[in-house]
Write a structure and sequence with these properties.
CATH architecture: Beta Barrel
Distance between the termini: 40 Å
CATH superfamily: monomeric porin ompg
Oligomer: single chain
CATH class: Mainly Beta
Structural class: mainly beta
Order of helices and strands: EHEEEEEEEEEEEE
Strand content: over 45%
């Protein structure tokens, strides 16, 4: 029976073009296990639900929280080829965000709301999620929504001549609390699987701080440091020496640079992640990603990403480094 996991994460990240991959052979599983995994994915995507390796770049998921309320994006990628070569590439992603201001003791919006000192709308509140906005000094009173929660769910699947070569999904839930215009605190939870790096399940939970190092009119630089608990199950043959289940404590750190063009039609995001284990520093994971977005229409953009991931101690038979180039159409609402 063909294994197809992750039906619950029905809309997901753009289907990638894998430039370096090492797919192990498939191994069948009982029907009940497949059904339970699909159900678990659905529950996580709806309740706790980003590249297809251990590291997930949440920087490209962040939307500006300039106004309280709901917002989101939808990515779609599909390709079908029939004839001498039969190929299917399917993928997509959905991101939902809700932002709300800090409330005072009487339940009213406090000084963080989007009204100025005279009750008028301000030019634009402080940028909570790292999208370009008005410059802010560390002494300014925070404006705009002080709380943001966002949920990202994505899935990628590719098959050629009845052979799967991409099958992965992730779900990520994050809450952000702004302490000041330059300091925010975050907590997050994540679930993912990736058949072709032998990753059967991975659950993450953690939190940390995010610091605005540079906040210019078109250029911004952010850094983050935090802690995460990682639990993972690998899909390995019994003969291999690697353990199938593990639990580790890791440090998660990143630096990201954002650039918006003057007309705001072009946006570039570059991010570097490092996630070493606390008890074994030589076991680390790196992620470098460049994401380029071109605004086609008011709510429609073309997104192109180059993703390089490195795992210093991958499972047996898996290469240390993967490179993925992906593109998609992105609709914002």
């Amino acid at each position: 029976m063909e294994r197809f996991r992750g039906h619950g994460l029905a809309v997901c990240a753009p289907a990638p073009i894998a430039l370096a991959a090492s797919p192990p052979g498939e191994c069948d599983r009982p029907t009940m296990r497949v059904a339970m995994r699909a159900l678990a994915s659905l529950v996580l995507a709806a309740a706790v639900a980003v590249p297809a390796a251990a590291q997930v770049n949440t920087e490209k998921m962040r939307l500006g929280a300039n106004e309280p309320g709901w917002g989101g994006t939808l990515d779609v990628n599909a390709s079908l080829q029939q004839g001498n070569t039969e190929r299917e590439i399917l993928g997509g992603g959905v991101r939902l965000q809700y932002a709300w201001p800090r409330l005072d003791a009487d339940g009213e919006a406090g000084p963080d709301s989007d009204a100025g000192p005279d009750g008028d709308e301000t030019e634009g509140p402080a940028d909570l999620t790292g999208v370009a906005g008005e410059p802010a000094s560390g002494d300014e009173e925070a404006t705009g929504p002080a709380n943001v929660i966002f949920l990202v769910s994505n899935y990628s699947f590719s098959r050629a001549n009845d052979n799967r070569y991409v099958n992965n999904a992730q779900g990520h839930l994050r809450f952000i609390r702004q302490h000041s215009p330059r300091i925010s605190f975050e907590v997050f939870g994540q679930y993912q699987f990736n058949e072709f790096i032998r990753l059967e399940d991975r659950f993450l939970a953690g939190g940390g701080g995010r610091f605005a190092l540079v906040q210019g009119e078109r250029t911004e630089v952010f850094a983050g440091i935090g802690y995460m608990l990682e639990q993972e199950t690998l899909d390995l043959p019994a003969a291999l020496p690697d353990g199938t289940s593990s639990e580790h404590h890791r440090s998660t750190n990143y630096v990201t640079v954002r650039y918006n063009s003057e007309d705001e039609r072009l946006r570039l995001v570059q991010t570097l992640y490092a996630q070493p284990r606390f008890d074994r520093l030589e076991d680390f994971r790196l992620l470098f990603e460049t994401s380029f977005e071109i605004q086609l229409f008011r709510q429609l953009a073309l997104a192109i990403s180059l993703n390089v991931t490195h795992d210093s101690e991958p499972p047996t038979g898996i290469k240390e480094t993967d490179v993925v180039l992906s593109n998609s159409l992105r609709y914002s609402f």
